[in-house]
Design brief:
177 residues; alpha+beta; Arc Repressor Mutant, subunit A; three-stranded antiparallel sheet; 5 strands; globular; disordered C terminus
Length: 177
């Protein structure tokens, strides 16, 4: 997606984020390379999204109150709806969500991977029984570190998470400088 399609590009503790707003609804958040240029919000809704995301990074209890339009299958939307019910710092295993919704852990993971609005729809709160699990299709590098950072930011106690988190991962992302 070209940068001209973004409604804003902001810096955050986890890197550059593109905000995509269409017809006054949040439709996407994308992780970008830090070399991507910043862009001020192009309208009131984009400014509202940026404000709420910045508030979340300042205080994970801030929460979100945004109108979203998520494109996906009915199944994906069912998973995403479930994710929005998780509170800040609350985690579940992929298998727990799968059991609750009558599907498989892999299907839950695939729906999380397809989530067009990460952070706001908190797929980072779904974990593998053997460790942190993946994030945005990544199981070993930068995006898993983002998941780790978000969980720490939300106050998840990594020391007592009983294998929910791979403790070898760095606990913070590179600075935004």
């Amino acid at each position: 997606m070209k940068q001209s399609n973004f409604s804003a590009v902001i810096d955050s503790p986890i890197g550059r984020l593109a905000i995509i707003v269409r017809h006054e609804k949040l439709t996407g958040i994308r992780f970008l390379d830090r070399r991507t240029g910043l862009a001020k919000p192009d309208g009131d809704m984009a400014a509202r999204v940026v404000s709420q995301i910045q508030a979340y990074f300042a205080d994970p209890d801030a929460g979100f109150d945004l109108i979203c339009n998520m494109q996906g299958t009915d199944f994906q939307k069912k998973i995403w709806c479930r994710l929005t019910k998780l509170k800040q710092g609350q985690t579940l295993f992929y298998g727990e969500v799968a059991h609750e919704l009558g599907t498989s852990p892999r299907a839950v993971g695939n729906a999380c991977r397809a989530n067009p609005i990460p952070i706001v729809v908190p797929c980072h709160r779904i974990l593998s029984k053997t460790g942190i699990g993946g994030y945005d299709g990544d199981r070993e590098t930068g995006k898993v570190n983002i998941k780790h950072w978000l969980l720490v930011h939300e106050g998840v106690d990594l020391g007592s998470s009983v294998n929910r988190i791979d403790k070898s991962l760095p606990s913070v992302m590179p600075s935004s400088g």
